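Archive entry. Fields below.
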Amino acid sequence: MFDDTNAVGVTDALSALQPLGLDLLKAGQCARFHQADLTCDDCAMLSALGLNDQCRFRVCRSGTTCILQVGGTRIGLSRRVAEKITVVPE
Amino acid sequence: MTGMMNTADNQSQQSSTQSTKTNLDKTGKIRVALLGNPNTGKTTLFNRLCGMRAKTANFPGITVEARVGRWSVSSEAFKEIDLIDLPGLYRLALNTPEAALCRNVIAGNLESDATHPDALLIILDATNLERNLAIAVEAIKSGKPTVVALNMIDIANKRNMEIDTRLLSKTLACPVVEISAKSGKGIELIPAALNEAILSHIPNNVIAQLPDLTDQTAVDTWCNAAAIKIYGSESWSDSSHDKMTDRLDHVFTHPILGLVSFCLVMAGLFMVVFAVANYPMDIIDGFFGTATEYVAGLLPEGFIRDLLTDGIIAGVGGVVIFLPQICLLFFLISLLEDTGYLARAALVVDRLFAKFGLSGHSFIPFLSSHACAIPGIMSAKLIPDRRNRITTIFVAPFMSCAARVPVYVLLTGILFANRPAVAGLVFFGCYVLGGVAALLTALLIRRTVLAGPSQPMVLELPTYKMPSLRTAILMTWDRAFAFLKNAGTVILGISIVLWWLGSFPAVSVPDEAVALRNQVEQTVDMPLETQEAMLSDADAIETMNAQANSYIGRMGKAVQPAFAPLGYDWKLTVAVLTSFAAREVFASTMAVLTSGSDDTEDEGVLQGISNATRDDGSPMFNTPTALSLLVFYVLAMQCLPTLAVTRRETGGWKWAGFQLGYMSVLAYVAALVTYQGSIMFGL
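PREDICTED_STRUCTURE:
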């Protein structure tokens, strides 16, 4: 059975400090939010949910559905959103 | 620390001379608005405080749903507290209808005095202060007396989270009460805290220390820093994640396992609804049958008896019989929502919906529409993207709502009386047909009149937890009450009007019936059974003649040629026309139109309808006609209140008119194809 979790691997050679697309992270990886190429309302919603400049998060699931743990909040994102968010992996 | 109330030292100097313009001055009661993030237990607290003394409020000019209720308290300060349960939201500053409603309520901008709160009760999730503090800051800066209820304190304690409640109270400059909305611990301290907040001033220097609300980054930074101080450390670390939640999410949001579990959950939900609801439905059916017999035996023949038995009891009984299914559906949806599963399901269907130009945000409106399209359409306002929102509103009425259930049950029962498995399959097929029609229509709209990119999906996934029976029961009660109110007003009114239209003008008894009765009277040795059969035939002839010449009969006959290609006689045409206002009226119309014909007095309402005949004596419901009707009712709008809500939510009649025209034409064409196809294939 096909499971798209972890299917898209992150290039290990990438610098740990170089921003990259959220959709490229693997489940279990931690990262810090960098920026989002979304509308103002979408950015405000992400920020209200806790996904803001300051935040560090863990990827619980990646692939077509992306789930992040941000503090005590678990956020579900479609892949279309994840593709527009850049993060700095740790 | 549970049940503890804390107040900032620098705020505890109460001013007894302070003038507070609250209801307390005059009536001994105050009005308090509940505010908080989604999934913080706000509604659980509201239900615990108000129980069944709550109702859904429609504020003037506002379509976002909020509930109001009364909390009777044994406090020295207040006797009663009127609570307004505002919709859950993450920030007051967000550009959403819920945030706009909350801002207007807090500012007292709404017309009705009943929406002006004297104080705010902010519900915070004790396990997630980083995110929750922002709304508390916004509320305090509004200048309204504010109390913070730190909910889920029991869960925080279980996780060994140390919370400095005194520091929280000092930081926010308002009373803080530790509570557990689920168990009720600590809620008795809320009235005193509210009294304290109302009588106190929030010092200006404390407000000045709160972050500038126009600077989002400053608010985020302040909240993170404050939460770290209050917890004593960062509340979340890499090692603190819940492995069980990870495992469940892995299954429920998996591309394949997620879809399989979704189908199983939905199938289970509807199977339970229809399997369990049968028993109370039988009881209700029997009750109305007995009531009809009792009233018929009690009153002399005439206008009043006919009105009560054939108009009111038959009409209302034909709809109220489906109350158990509606209650069960809402009860199970509430339980599912409480477990945290529905948010995962929305993520799963997002992948599918995206192919049709929608997003997972449409899932809750669609699921709600299976109970009633009106709350479904109203919940579509939560969809941030306009194109998605309009499309969802447009196609939501295709979902098979509870009002369609009476028609489905009636027609599948008639079609497959002795084959319950096939009836169940066809019943399920109606739901599928409605869903498919909705998705294809959405695709058509997003490719034509609403072409353009759709906004992607972001949502909070609440913690998995055991659902609250109390919350589910209260929600079910709320919905059942609304349904019964509808049945007791609109449907009762329609039933009476229908009965009158079907009973007048009075016409003379046809010669054929007179002849049969005369024959019975004049024949001395006629067996009793033959006498009864002949009298029964005479009654049936008289009833059919009266109906055919009644006002409604004339209307049905005038329009019937348009519905003849679909297989409908004048009675079915009348039922279709009268159910234009509310589709559930179809069953009650059929009950009214068929009551009084052969043998129905001794049978249940459903049996009476299924045995109905046309003027030529042939069965009213043959297979092609019943299938055609099923398809028609799956796809037709047939609900005036839904149209009104579409108009309100889309800001005009344009979309409502388009919705009515599109669905009516689609339903007619699909029913025509079904009828003619069924005849062609010899069904």
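CURATOR_NOTE: Confidence is low (pLDDT under 50) at residues 8-21, 58-63, 596-602 of chain B.
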